[in-house]
Write a structure and sequence with these properties.
The complex is a heterodimer of chains A (385) and B (615).
Chain A: H1 12-22, H2 25-45, H3 54-73, H4 76-100, E1 102-104, E2 107-113, E3 116-118, H5 120-138, H6 147-166, H7 170-187, H8 191-211, H9 214-224, H10 233-247, H11 258-261, H12 273-305, H13 310-334, H14 352-370
Antiparallel strand pairs in A: 1-2, 2-3
Helix pairs in contact in A: 2-3, 2-12, 3-14, 4-5, 4-6, 5-6, 5-7, 5-13, 5-14, 6-7, 7-13, 10-12, 12-13, 13-14
Chain B: H1 3-42, H2 44-55, E1 56-61, E2 68-69, E3 75-87, H3 95-103, H4 110-122, E4 129-133, H5 137-146, E5 153-163, H6 166-173, E6 176-178, H7 181-186, E7 196-198, H8 201-205, H9 207-211, E8 215-221, E9 227-232, E10 242-243, H10 248-258, E11 264-270, E12 276-282, H11 287-291, H12 296-304, H13 313-316, H14 326-336, E13 345-347, E14 350-353, E15 356-359, E16 365-367, H15 369-375, H16 378-388, H17 390-399, H18 421-428, H19 434-440, H20 451-463, H21 488-503, E17 522-528, E18 547-554, E19 561-567, H22 573-590, H23 593-614
The chains are: A mainly alpha (385), B alpha+beta (615).
């Protein structure tokens, strides 16, 4: 039994101390800096008031930190065991949302028991990463690119993507797709599969397009290019672009953003917080915020590279992909590069579920980092349990 | 290959691919930054403009209209605060619902609602439409508090026009009203809600001066168009204040004096300067009622009234001057040298010219010029005008201010008619018949004049100067009016006759002599036929009566004021018109600062004398 575990792990007190020392503290400082930018932005959005968003954002970050530490310091093997059950339970919840979910803003994403409600799709992001990482931890390295070995992870990705599209929540579906596809890529699946997928899409897409009705095509075109419909969803994008553009190089100054302060922006405290931030802080502020995110991403990549075992390596890499997808989709959306899909800006946007999910995800990254030297042998785990 | 090698290969592959993904992420972040650069640096000015468009809402501010003062500085017309409620149709979810919500606090009539709905359809939805105005403070406060709940509603403060001594001043100052369609298309500024332009009187005649320049005000608005704060703007420029030559108090007295008559008007001029001191016309109306919160029924009643209360008769009433015209005929005769003051003519009660017998109102026996004027002998002037001829009579009439428009700043003045051969050929295409000249000599026939013109004639005869009437006190004192090119001796002869009319036994207006000590009035009565006597039977009652006229000046020594009064269908000039002039002139003289002291002194003298006598 002893041989199965990495050295030193049988002495818990030493283990905790070592784990704390092994934590990536600069990484945590970076996260806190980004969160503080979020707090300032929420303070400004509320017209110079901690209520109703900024103060709660701080509280949620603190709760998130607690969650992050709990996840980071927990036993990585526990997650190895929990990965598949968690994934299955989450898929069931995701399916349940479609049946008993609470509708909000035209899409059913929430599931609730009394006071408490949450979005299964948020948990899914973590569960998906864990499940795929668990799969490749188990799969013999020689079989990674075998066709039948590619099918299970494809199914793992495909199921939540389809469920998310059913809600309908295109942003989340895209996110699952990016994270799942990225993980397969990182796991070492042959290039050929990716090229084949790309070719397949290119071949099939025009036929699908041609088979659509005019109004459906129109709807998709409007979705891709919202400015076709300036009074509908294009209004938000146009107003967002006006806000960002009018901020200029140096910005209008903290709390001086007219577009956001005057309610021209929709969802200014959640999905469009970046707009408000770059209106007030200008190009410089936006560039600094993006640089901070990039630093976090590079940190994650660095941490993933140092992992000895497949599971922590892929967990860290998957979480990094997830964070990247969030930031990129959000910023591309508010700057009019991408259609409007409801994706928050991690750590900055106001929102409890996304904050906790993100902190938990980052907790897994740190967990992987702590366990960078931990060897997990294929033989330790069975195919399912 | 051993599994271990596979694992190592996979790890290396992971490293390569993780670096690749890291690079891709960096690249995509670079794409975001490139996009931000385009928005925030390259296209920023454009977006800044759009942002300002978004948040800044510019409004025109109606300027305050100039204040009108009377000659001693009493306020005649001024702007007062006016609480209004408006709707911006584009911001109403449901215009009808908004109007209903408003009418729960302020009653809004169905006609008003209709007007708002129509206006909303006609113009840009972002242009405020006036719903109702003149709210009291309580209503205004209540609506202002409710403004965020009632979509598209605005309250604001503007001004309305308030007229003092409204009824007596009505015809002089006129009134204001909402700019009509032509005015709006000429000057889009007038679409400012509640913008009023002059519709009559001074308000219309001098609208350009009174109006002022509209200003702008910029508000910062939120996405729902709610005003967040004021950003400033250019202030509106207040219209010019004007000082009228009218004396409000005298105007009121004159108005009261002619109130008992059905239709009458009186003009009193300062004969030295030409300033119009009194210009009253009856029946009248209240300009406050027609310029603000107009009651349509009331307005229709005013417009349709048979006595035309909206007409300013002092300027627009054209009457045959009747015997008052004899002073003109007399001067024309004297200047032409066709009569002398000594020549006596016989009045057998009529004058036969060709086959037509022109009647005199009385057998006067033999009269010379002085008596002819004093007793108003028609025959004397039939002879005179027959010798003078129509063209020379017309020239004299024009010299004395008849047959022309004296621009006093009011719109719609009438010219009257001073006929001559040219006029007839032009207007009627016929030659002048000598027989027509005869009735013109006594101010009948084609001759027609306005009360203002008659007052000017009186003033010119009294002073011998080319007096020009005006209503607005000029900023710089105008040069003395030029001397009329009339022999002063001749003028003096006519004046003597006019003095006789009022002050000598046998004068036609001797009962209307002033009762003031040491001050006398000179005048000339006139009774003009509405239609020739033959047709009299067609017009029954009031309409068949003659017009009563009287022109006068006072004091006799160094004349200061000239007056003309016309009482429509009032009967004889001596009975109906002269007493009006006497009463008004008395009040005018009593208020003249130069004469006041003299009058007071003489009063004391008389009082002293009475005391002596009592003793």
């Amino acid at each position: 039994m002893k041989a199965l575990f990495a050295e030193g792990l049988e002495r818990p007190h030493v283990r905790l101390k070592q784990k704390l020392l092994a934590l990536n503290w600069p990484f945590l400082a970076l996260l806190t800096a980004i969160t503080l930018i979020g707090v300032a932005a929420l303070y400004s959005v509320a017209g110079g008031s901690l209520e109703p968003w900024a103060s709660r954002h701080v509280v949620r970050y603190c709760i998130g930190l607690a969650l992050l530490f709990t996840v980071a310091l927990s036993d990585i093997r526990l997650w190895l065991r929990v990965a598949y059950p968690l994934y299955i339970v989450t898929v069931i919840m995701l399916a349940a949302v479609l049946v008993i979910g609470v509708e909000s803003g035209g899409a059913t994403r929430w599931i609730g028991w009394g006071e408490f409600s949450f979005q299964p799709s948020e948990i899914m992001k973590i569960a998906l990463v864990l499940a795929i990482a668990r799969y490749y931890q188990w799969l013999p390295p020689s079989q990674v690119s075998w066709p039948y070995a590619v099918l299970p992870p494809l199914a793992m990705v495909g199921l939540p993507v389809i469920l998310a599209l059913d809600q309908p929540d295109l942003g989340t579906a895209a996110l699952f797709g990016i994270v799942g596809g990225g993980l397969l890529f990182l796991a070492g699946v042959s290039w050929l599969y990716f090229i084949a997928a790309l070719v397949g899409v290119i071949v099939v897409l025009p036929h699908v397009w041609a088979s659509l009705h005019d109004y459906q095509q129109e709807r998709i075109l409007t979705f891709i290019d919202p400015e076709r419909d300036p009074s509908g969803s294009g209004y938000h994008i146009l107003q967002s672009k006006i806000a960002i553009g009018s901020g200029g190089f140096a910005g209008k100054g903290f709390m001086q953003g007219t577009q956001a302060q005057l309610n021209f922006l929709p969802e200014k405290h959640t999905d469009f917080i970046f707009t408000m931030f770059s209106e007030e802080m200008g190009f410089i502020g936006a560039a600094v915020l993006l640089a901070l995110y990039l630093l976090v991403l590079l940190f994650i990549t660095y941490m993933a590279l140092r992992c000895r075992s497949t599971f922590p390596r892929l967990v860290a890499g998957g979480m990094g992909l997830c964070l990247f997808a969030y930031v990129f989709i959000n910023v591309a959306m508010v700057t009019g590069l991408m259609p409007v899909v409801g994706v928050p800006l991690p750590l900055v946007s106001y929102g409890g579920t996304s904050m906790l999910t993100m902190m938990a995800g980052l907790g897994f990254v740190l967990n992987a980092h702590i366990n960078r030297e931990t060897r997990i042998r294929r033989e330790e785990i069975g195919p399912f349990w | 290959m051993r599994p271990r090698d596979y694992a190592l290969r996979l790890r290396n592959r992971f490293t390569r691919r993780a670096v690749l993904i890291g690079a891709a992420q960096t690249g995509l972040f670079g794409l975001l930054l490139w996009r931000l650069r385009r928005l925030q640096i390259l296209e920023s000015p454009e977006y800044q403009l759009l942002s300002d468009d978004n948040r800044i809402s510019k409004h025109l501010v109606a300027p305050a209209r100039g204040v009108l003062y009377d000659r001693v500085g009493r306020t005649i017309a001024e702007d007062r605060e006016n609480f209004r409620v408006m709707v911006i149709p584009a911001l109403c979810q449901d215009l009808a619902a908004t109007l209903d919500a408003i009418s729960e606090i302020v009653p809004v009539g169905a006609a008003d609602k209709d007007r708002v709905v129509r206006a909303a359809r006609r113009q840009s939805g972002y242009f405020p439409v006036l719903v109702t105005e003149g709210l009291d403070w309580r209503q205004f406060a209540l609506l202002s508090v409710l403004a965020p709940q009632i979509a598209g509603m605005r309250t604001d403060r503007a001004t309305y026009r308030r007229y003092g001594r409204a009824r007596s001043m009505a015809h002089v100052v006129g009134y204001v009203g909402l700019a009509d369609k032509e005015e709006v298309s000429a000057h889009p500024v007038m679409r400012v809600p509640g913008f009023r332009t002059g519709k009559a009187g001074i308000e219309k005649g001098l609208d350009a001066e009174l109006r002022g320049e509209p200003g702008t005000i910029s508000y910062e608005v939120d996405a729902h168009g709610r005003v967040v704060r004021e950003l400033g703007g250019t202030p509106s420029v207040r219209g010019k204040d004007l000082v009228l030559t009218i004396d409000q108090e005298l105007q009121e007295i004159a108005h009261k004096r002619i109130q008992d008559l059905r239709v009458a008007s009186i003009v009193v001029l300062d004969a030295l300067t030409g300033g119009i001191v009194v210009m009253a016309s009856y029946p009248s109306f209240d300009p406050n009622e027609v310029s603000f919160k107009v009651d349509l029924a009331q307005w229709k009643e005013l417009a349709r009234n048979v006595d035309h209360p909206l007409e300013n008769r002092a300027l627009r009433g054209q009457y045959p001057p009747g015997s008052t015209f004899k002073v003109v005929t007399a001067l024309a005769g004297l200047e032409a040298g066709v009569i002398t003051p000594e020549e006596r003519m016989t009045c057998p009660g009529g004058f036969l010219f060709g086959r037509h017998y022109f009647r005199c109102w009385k057998r006067h026996g033999t009269v010379a010029l002085h008596e002819a004027i004093k007793q108003s002998c028609d025959v004397y002037f039939y002879h005179t005008v027959n010798r003078v001829g129509i063209d020379r009579l017309a020239a004299m009439s024009r010299k004395l201010g008849l047959g022309q428009i004296h621009d006093v700043g009011l719109a719609g003045q009438k010219e009257g008619i001073i006929p001559d051969t040219k006029w007839k050929r032009k207007k009627l295409g016929q030659p002048w018949y000598p027989g027509e000249t005869i009735s013109c000599g006594i101010g009948q026939g084609y001759v027609s004049t306005t009360p203002l013109q008659l007052a000017v004639t009186a003033a010119r005869i009294a002073t011998g100067k080319e007096v020009r009437p005006h209503l607005i006190t000029p900023a710089t004192p105008e040069p003395e009016p030029a001397q009329l090119n009339i022999d002063p001796v001749h003028l003096e002869l006519v004046r003597g006759g006019m003095v006789g009319v009022v002050n000598e036994k046998g004068g036609t207006a001797v009962r209307s002599a002033l009762t003031l000590p040491n001050v006398q009035m000179a005048g000339k009565t006139g009774t003009s036929q509405v239609i020739s006597a033959k047709n009299r039977g067609f017009l029954k009652g009031w309409y068949g009566e003659t017009h009563a006229l009287f022109i006068a000046y006072a004091p006799v020594v160094s004349p200061r004021y000239a007056a003309a009064c016309v009482v429509e269908h009032g009967g004889g000039g001596s009975r109906a018109a002269a007493p009006v002039v006497r009463d008004v002139m008395t009040e005018v003289l009593l208020r003249d600062p130069a004469l006041k002291t003299a009058l007071l002194a003489s009063n004391e003298e008389t009082a002293g004398a009475t005391k002596e006598r009592k003793r």
